[in-house]
## 1
Amino acid sequence: MNNGDFWTLLKKSGYQFGSTLNMNSIPGATAPFPVTHGTTILAFKYQGGVLVAGDRRATAGTTVMYDRTDKVIDIDRHSVMAIAGVPATAFEIARIMEHTFKYFRRSQLQELSLDGKVRALSRLLKENIPMAIQGIGAVAPIYAAYDLSKKEGKIFFYDILGAEFEGVEFAVSGSGSPAVRGILHYENRWGPQPLSRVSEESAIVLTIRLLETASEFDSATGGVNIEAGLYPLIKLVTATGTREISLDVLENLFSRNIKSNPIRS
């Protein structure tokens, strides 16, 4: 693998690897020390725009490091990025995007196009390939924005090498995402109505249930903790901008709408 075609292809495509990259560590993606990260982030279109959410747990291996992590970050007035992967790298990428978009707006007196924003995130992920390949800096984010020119919400998801994909109706990422992806597909195709027609309140209730389900199957995903006041971080991306759902609203919707069936799983 050290001299494999993959690396030759990457170099011919213009990728520059940092001098600190240890090529001998690449086979088997072996890192200098064992580090694993997990989470569950999701985004789907509802009748008002795009809902983006993430659980609050941060882990290192099997250790729970923190239970109040903000995994959905405002990038500008009409876009957010949900992070899955190494928090330090993800937060840095989000910070660079925020400043890049702000600089463009102030220097060009106009907003960067949505295509430009999507490509900017892709470029940052490609620049992070050396860290991602070593297994110590991988990030697989979801970027959601409201396209004012087309008057509709947009969802994009990425792999750790920077390839971008548009989620037509929804996108998920993180170690707990397989369970959530299946439920979203089921709801969108065979539920009472397509996700894009779901009301804001129903979308929030569905999201809490989805992340609670993910936490049942993925130890790296945190669920709801009523006693501690811990709920998923949920943000809405609409024509009027981004908005975070407050703790009071989450507590109210949870108490009124979410009850477990009296059965053991």
## 2
Amino acid sequence: MDLSSIFQIASTLALIGWIMLIVVPKWKQTAILVFNFIVILFSIAYLSIIILNFDKFSMNSFSTLDSVASLFENRSLLLGGWIHYLAFDLIIGLLITEHALKNNFNGPLLILCQLLTFILGPIGFLIYYITNAIKQKTTAPKIIEIAE
């Protein structure tokens, strides 16, 4: 399968995952399909790309902006980076959705945060974080339960 086809399939799967998170967030199968199918499939694709291109990495591959830019000149590694973004944005989208449902944070603001996370990644999460900080009246809202 060529890289453009993999890009199209990955982008379409990500879009389907985001549509599920936004349109049917309470459906029991949404989280299962998004995480256990789409994200795991992205992880396998990413691992495959890394293994197939392992010879292109060096100890300094991620040490400077120029070395990272050099890696992304390779279309296969660029695709790997894209799949990496899709997977992690979808995981954060799932986290936001699950947290919002658990804490009765639903409606247009949740959809805005989901859409921003889908398109701009960390900005959507930041808006969700700030909104929860205001709602919880704290500078460190609990989005993830961390055992102390």
